[in-house]
Design a protein that fits this description.
Number of domains: 1
Structural class: mainly alpha
Distance between the termini: 29 Å
Number of helices: 3
Order of helices and strands: HHH
Length: 83
């Protein structure tokens, strides 16, 4: 649950800064955040003692990201504002 909330808030912060002006900026964000999430898990597996690689952590991170993006896009559609 913590992973979901952290990445949900992170994505909403990016959205509130008007970073998502185009569809391509959203796609770029998704690519970069996916690499970041994967990198965190690899770092936990190989660099952090007492930590391990957890696939479900990555799923929760991405779920939070997609949920925030869905809310952001839905809000833009309802208010008739372009991305």
């Amino acid at each position: 649950m913590v992973h979901f909330i952290l990445f949900f808030v992170l994505t909403l912060l990016f959205a509130s800064s008007n970073y998502f002006k185009t569809i391509s900026s959203i796609i770029l964000y998704l690519i970069l955040i996916s690499l970041y999430i994967y990198g965190i898990e690899l770092g936990q597996k190989y660099l952090a003692s007492g930590r391990s690689y957890e696939f479900m952590d990555m799923v929760a991170d991405m779920a939070g990201t997609f949920a925030a993006l869905a809310i952001y896009i839905f809000h833009k559609i309802l208010t008739n504002k372009s991305l």
